[in-house]
Every structure is written in C-alpha cells, then in structure tokens.
Write a structure and sequence with these properties.
This is Anaphase-promoting complex subunit 4. Keywords: Cell cycle, Cell division, Mitosis, Ubl conjugation pathway. Residues 118-319 form the Anaphase-promoting complex subunit 4 long domain. By secondary structure, the chain is α+β, with helices and mostly antiparallel strands. Among the domains are: 130-406, no CATH class; 436-444 and 458-588, no CATH class. It is 37% helix and 25% strand. The chain contains eleven helices and 21 strands. Strands 8, 9, 10, 11, 15 and 16 form a six-stranded mixed β-sheet that branches. A hairpin with a 4-residue loop joins β18 (589-596) and β19. The radius of gyration is 36 Å and the shape is elongated. The two termini are 62 Å apart.
Length: 627
C-alpha cells in the first residue's frame, strides 16, 4: 500500500509512492558525510552538517563471510585509517588497524589475536531505504538550527546594545546619589525628582546636577542613546528575531505533522510526543517575543517622557522657554518608582540568576489556566521565564527531539563483513598505522539473462593498499580486494565471491600512494628507491585496469585466525613499466596522490615543493607545474 517502504510491515504496491507527491524536496542534494577518528568512532552527517548517526567499531560484533564459524569477533585498540561510503549509500568500507579477538577462542597468557590492518563492511542501507524521510527531517532540522543561530545572535546583540545605553544613563545619573551624600541629605534620587515634580524648589544637589553635571547637552546625549537603542532593538526584533521565531514554529510544525505518520517516521526515530513538546516551546517563544516588544515599547516611551520632563525642568532652571515640551506626570511617577533603578528589558534578555523569575500578576495567571483547558500551553509557568530562558528551553526540547533519530539510526548501523588484510608489528599496536590505501566502487551492469535487455547496475567495491615489506615472504607488493561489499538486492545466501590480487612493484621503485580511478582503473604513484644528489629523482604514475588482473577467490575457513592474503603469494603478478600504461615524472615525488575521476586529472607533489597536474585520459605529457 502507498506509504510503506521495505522494512515496514505491510504489502507493497507497484504504484508510485504517494509521499513523493507530498514532498517538495529534491533528492539530488541528499548526501551524507562520514568521518572516522583514531578512537574508532565514525560519524554520519546529512548535508555534512546535520548529525544523523554514529558508531564505534570497538562496540561492533563482527563476522566474516569467509568464516564458516558463527563465533562473534571484536576489535580491540582499533584506530580508523580510511572510510568510504558507497554511492548508493548502502555500504561503508572501513580500513582500521587493531587486534581481532574471537569470542569462542580463549586467549591464553602470551597469546594474542590478529594484530594488523582489517577491512570492515558496515550495512548502511538505512540511508538509502529511508532517504526520503531522512532528507525531509534533516532539511527541516538544519533549517531550524540555522534559524536558532539567528535568534541566539539577535538576543546577544540586543543585550549588548541595551546594556550600553542603560550604562550611559546610570553613569550620568549616579552622580545624583553622590551629590546628595556630599550635601549631607538623607534622601534618594527618586525622592528629589518627585519633589521637583510636585512643584517644590530643586534641592541644592539636584540643582547642581541639572545645571552643571547634566546640563541640556548631556541630557540630550543620554536621551539619544536610550531612544536610539530602543529603536535598534525594535528593528532587530522585527527584521530578524520575530521572523526567525515564526519560521521555527512553522518548521517544527511540519516535523510534528510528519511524526504523526508513524508508519514512515517512527522507524527513523521521529517521536510524536517529543515533537509536540518542541512545537509548544516554539509557540511559547513567539508569545515571549510579543511580550518583549510590548515591554520594550513601554519602557522606551517612559524613558522618553522622563527625559522630556527633565529637559523642561532644565530649561526652567536656565530661564529658557519650555512651552513646547509636553510630558505626562503620571508616567514620570511610574518611571521613578519602577524603572529608575530597575531594567525589565535587560531582565528579559538574560538568564535569571538563582530562583528569581519574572513577576506575573494573578489575573494573567488565571487567564493562562483558563486557556489551558481550551488547548492552550500545558506549561503554566512560561510567562515567569525570560525571553532568553524560553529560547534556551526551546533549544533543549529540539535537541531531545532530534536526538531520537540520531540514536535510532545509530542502532541500525551494523557490521556486515570483515576481512583481515595483513599483520603489523606489535610496536605499532598503540599508535595509528598509516598505509597507502584507497577504496572505491565501480558500477557493473548486470543482465538478467543472455536474451533479455533488462539490466540493473550493481556496485563492486575495490579496496587497494600497500603491503608492508615484512608481512610476506615477497616484498614491495600491493594488494587489491573486490567483492567484499555484497549486493543487498540479491537473495539471502547468494553473494559474489571475495577475490584478491597481489601485485609486485618493479625493482628500483616503491609505491608511495595509490588511488582508484574511474571504470575500475587503479593509479599507482611509484618513486625511485635510490636517488643521487646530481639528479632530482625519477618517478612513474602507472594506470592499471582492475578487470584485467587475475583475481583469485579467497577460500573459507573455520575461524578468523589467519591472514587470507597469504594464499596469494604463489599467484603474485610482477608489474613491468614497459608493458603497462605508465607516465614518467622527472622528479622525486611525495604523497599524497590526488585523483579526480570527473575531471580526468591527477595531481602529484614533487619533493622540491612543486605541484604537477597530469591529464590521465590523454597520452601526451601535458603537465602544469605550480611552484
């Protein structure tokens, strides 16, 4: 039926998925970035920014298709060297060095597991099977994170602007308290201003403050700073904060709607209850923004009214005309009582300290309780929080909601296969082991039958690496393995054989790096083993066709206690520079080798700080040197 995908319980229909009609998102931009570290952790990020899963290879139970035993194995002290995700997102190849321990084999004293370089294949088909759902969730969640950053930055900028303006006000008006103390009076600045407002004569300290310390010019500067800050805050809210908060509410509302489609989205961890909670928090943030705008407008108005009255008082003291300066006496009283030494705007922009909260009158709280019965917010205490605190709680709810898909997907990333490649010295056990290696996937066209034109594409994984000289009886070799990644579309129990080939580098040269190229080609970067001071050295870039190599199927065994590539020593192929497609490089080269299949070029670095760019698809030696 429409709406079901593989992995859901139900019948599948061949008609076009109805969800495709509901989704406006394009899958062309759907991509996943995977990265591994020396501690064995692999992280997956959709679009490269939204974390969708993680796995640690130390916690994986591994098994091999080349072992007939059902015993589980584990990796100890493993460090990741390279990871490569297939184009169809179904497989992840991991090259790592560590010690392979089999559970059923008891490790006696002095005995160890297989210490060396291993290749793991992880089943990541969840990224392909659920790409529609993951793309939709990641797109909305990434947008919410970007908008949250807009809100966070807006709050920070607003707090800084308003704090500077209020600091200017208090820096000037704190002089009143100092003058009162100097004159030996027992009163407060508010008392002195109220006395002046009531018609009394200005006291000596207040007269000195208005005439000398403040003056008309100083008062206008303070008024300009506060009023200007108020206008800037209003613009930031209208142009940035409020639109971002509204779009966040819209985006999280879309995710809430998707979470109700349990058949599709519960399987990737989109939890309906967590989304309901996040949606409510987004609504609370919008209410907080609206309240902040009202508080800001009221505070700026009262500041402006106070400055108008004070300017008129200064003009009266200076015996200047003051008829064109109207003010409201009641607002002046309210300002002196509630705003002169308090700052409700700054309070809303900051996190409350301790158990302090925003005061809410009983009538408003009663209305909130009544609204809760008609589908309002279930959290009745939200108005007691500041705007900054509400944003913090909203972010926390978002993190909880998006943590569920992360943990759900992480639990579905399992090890599908393992192949021990070659041993390494025990001295390298505690440090990362670097080896030239490359992982790539080649598209093969598989025909259903010899007479049918129906065909499908399958990806064959190629893993190439340089073998240490001391691990086999023959030295200076390169190993190539293919078939380790299995086609998930095939019937259970049917898979391609795991094959490998062993290549010996020509005498006088050693492989410093390698890379897999398009159409199953392998590019080797060879450098002379001995160079003289008279010459700049010599190197070769050799291109091999993987399909032409005599691959040998690796045999199965009862346990994973041996290195399979040892079987290939008798069938090793000796490469010859004259018989292979090789390009001479008149310089000694150093790693890395960079190859671009889409552009058909390779870049190598000479030992003398030069970058050499070669066109791989042409026979001419077209080289671009960059100092």
């Amino acid at each position: 039926m429409p709406g079901l995908v593989p992995g859901d319980s139900g019948f599948m229909d061949d008609i076009e998925d109805s969800f495709q009609e509901l989704s406006n998102s394009s899958h062309q931009r759907y991509n996943i970035l995977c990265s591994g570290d020396k501690d064995g952790s692999i992280c997956f990020n959709i679009f490269g920014i939204f974390p969708i899963g993680t796995v640690n290879i130390h916690n994986l139970v591994v098994s091999s298709s080349l072992s007939s035993s059902n015993a589980a194995s584990r990796l100890l002290n493993a460090s990741i060297c390279k990871v490569a995700l297939s184009k169809d997102l179904c497989h992840l190849v991991v090259l790592c060095n560590g010690e392979l321990i089999t559970d059923e084999v008891e490790q006696g004293e002095g005995q160890h597991g297989l210490l060396g370089l291993h290749c793991l294949v992880l089943n990541t088909s969840i990224f392909s099977k659920r790409k529609t759902e993951l793309h939709q969730v990641a797109q909305q969640a990434s947008n919410i994170e970007d908008l949250s950053e807009v809100v966070r930055t807006s709050l920070s900028v607003m707090s800084k602007i308003w704090s500077d303006a209020v600091h200017t006000f208090h820096e000037k008006f704190n002089t009143v308290s100092t003058l009162i103390i100097d004159h030996g009076l027992d009163s407060t600045p508010q008392d002195e201003f109220l006395s002046l407002l009531g018609g009394a004569r200005a006291s000596p300290p207040l007269h000195q403050f208005l005439e000398n310390s403040l003056g008309e010019a100083g008062l206008k500067r303070v008024a300009k700073a506060v009023n200007g800050a108020g206008k800037e805050l209003q613009l930031i809210v209208l142009d940035h904060l409020q639109p971002a908060a509204e779009i966040i509410g819209f985006r999280i509302g879309e995710l809430r709607g998707l979470s109700k489609w349990r058949a599709r989205y519960k399987g990737i961890g989109l939890d309906e209850k967590l989304m309901d909670n996040a949606t409510e928090r987004a609504g609370m943030l919008l209410v907080q923004v609206e309240r902040f705008m009202r508080v800001l407008a009221s505070v700026v108005q009262q500041f402006s009214n106070f400055f108008s009255w004070l300017l008129k008082s200064v003009k009266i003291l200076m015996a200047e005309p003051s008829d064109q300066l109207p003010f409201n006496s009641e607002l002046v009283i309210i300002f002196l009582k509630f705003l002169y030494d308090q700052d409700p705007v700054r309070q809303l922009l900051e996190i409350s300290e301790g158990d302090s909260s925003v005061e809410v009158d009983l009538e408003t709280m009663q209305r909130i309780k009544q609204l809760a019965h008609f589908g309002g917010f279930s959290d009745l205490e939200y108005l007691k929080r500041t705007l900054a605190e509400e944003f913090q709680q909203m972010e926390s709810c978002f993190n909880d909601a998006f943590e569920m898909p992360f943990s759900t997907i992480s639990g579905k990333l399992l090890c599908e296969d393992l192949l021990p490649l070659f041993p390494i010295a025990s001295s390298s056990k505690l440090k990362p082991y670097k080896v030239p290696a490359s992982v790539s996937y080649n598209e093969d066209i598989l025909h259903e039958s010899s007479e049918s034109e129906i065909h499908q594409q399958a990806l064959t994984g190629y893993i190439s690496f340089k073998l240490p000289d001391d691990c086999f009886s023959i030295a200076n070799c390169i190993g190539i393995v293919r078939g380790l990644t299995h086609d998930l579309g095939k019937l259970e129990g049917i898979s391609d054989p795991v094959e490998a080939a062993l290549l010996c580098i020509p005498d006088g040269y050693h492989c410093i790096d390698l890379s897999l190229y398009k159409e199953g080609q392998i590019v080797l970067l060879l450098d002379e083993t001995v160079t003289t001071s008279e010459s700049s050295g010599n190197a070769y870039m050799m291109i091999l066709q993987a399909s032409d190599l005599p691959f040998v199927s690796l045999s199965k065994s009862n346990t994973l206690n041996s290195w399979k590539l040892h079987e290939l020593q008798d069938s090793a192929i000796y490469l010859q520079l004259e018989s292979e497609k090789a390009r001479s490089i008149p310089h000694s080269v150093v790693p890395p080798l960079a190859v671009s299949a889409s552009r058909g070029v390779a870049c190598v670095f000479a030992a003398r700080k030069r970058a050499l760019v070669y066109i791989l698809d042409e026979d001419e030696d077209e080289v671009s040197d960059i100092e």
